[in-house]
Amino acid sequence: MNVPGWFADSSHWTGPDGVPAQVGHHLVYTLLALGISLVIAVPLGMFIGYTGRGGALVVGSANALRALPTLGALVLLFLLISSSVSGQAVYLIPTTAVLVLLGVPPILAGTYAGIQNADSGAVGAARAMGYTRAQILIRVQLPCALPLMLSGIRSATLQIVSTATVAAYVGLQGLGRFILDGRAEADFTKMTAGALLVAVLAIAFEVLFALVGRFTISPGLRRSETSSIRSRPSPAIPVPGT
Q1: How far apart are CA 108 and CA 41, in angstroms?
Q2: 101 half-sphere exposure, CB direction, 13 A CA radius
Q3: Rounded CA gap, 79 and 61, in Å?
Q4: Crossing angle of helices 176-184 and 188-216, rounded to 10°
Q5: What 3 state SS string does 92-151 have?
Q6: 127: pLDDT confidence band, cut at 50, 70 and 90?
Q7: Coiled coil located at which positions (predicted)?
Q8: If DSSP codes are grouped into helix, strand and coil, which group holds residue 18?
Q9: Are 90 and 99 in contact (CB under 8 A)?
Q10: Rg (CA), the chain
Q11: Residue 1: which residues within 8 A CB-CB, separation 6 or more?
């Protein structure tokens, strides 16, 4: 395999099937699924964390849906809607749906856990100052929950990015085309290049979320997290002969 040579070939970087175009398609599927996941999971997680109702049922159901085989669910949804939907939507709807099934559980869990585990002292102080329940949620619990929420969103994004390659199985574009077409052509260099591009895109999102966390999470919360990690007891190291 000559993967560097594949990337050095200018023909792979131009046209509708080139790397930039396929990265663009991959990003569209990723951001669409992530946006829908956020719209579903964040309000639901806030409600569960705020009221403490239905947490086990909703989170358990979300995780059960997440356990569905992605490719099988994609093909099933495609077959179910193919008779009633036409155009690109017949491919885009099932692809987006299976990616949303992956994205909702970690965002939901992060939001729910972050709201419930908000600093009780800060919540009590806000209540003593006369804040309403809604004000406590927006001004105290949500900022305290931000680290866990961002962690859930980061996890969801990485899962969606790595799984969006399944779009190629129903005829859509994206980085999965390199993997699927390379397999059909027995071109393992092309398959490897596609996998590397997906990995690089995932790393780019990882770096982006690290930067977002640095600029959006309160320094006080970052210090408290660091202090809690440092204060944990170190595991005992066995001494030979004892």
Answers
A1: 5
A2: 22
A3: 24
A4: 170
A5: HHHHHHHHHHHHHHHHHHHHHHHHHCCCHHHHHHHHHCCCCHHHHHHHHHHHHHHHHHHH
A6: confident
A7: none
A8: coil
A9: no
A10: 22
A11: 188, 189, 192
- Write out the two tokens for 115: 């709201």
In the block, residue with structure tokens 């690290």: 210
Phi-psi region of 174 (alpha: psi -120 to 50; beta: other; left: phi over 0): left
Among residues 96, 99, 104, which one has the least CA distance to residue 37? 104
CB 115 within 8 A of CB 148: no
Of 36, 32, 30, 7, residue with least CA distance to 19: 7
pLDDT digits (tens, 9 = 90+) for 46-94: 888 888 777 677 777 777 777 778 888 888 888 888 888 878 888 899 9
Secondary element (H or E) of residue 171: none
> Residue 241, Cβ neighbours under 10 Å: how many?
4
Structure tokens at 66: 């997440």
Q: Any idea what DSSP says for residue 164? A: G
Q: Token digits for 145?
A: 């929950």
Tokens of 213: 């966390």
C-alpha 65/C-alpha 131 separation (Å) is: 38
Distance CA 179, CA 78 (A): 21
Per-residue tokens: 92:
């885009």
pTM of the complete model: 0.83
Q: Which residues lie closer than 8 Å to 155 by C-beta, 6 or more apart?
A: 106, 110
Backbone angles phi, psi at 219, to 5 degrees: -55, -35
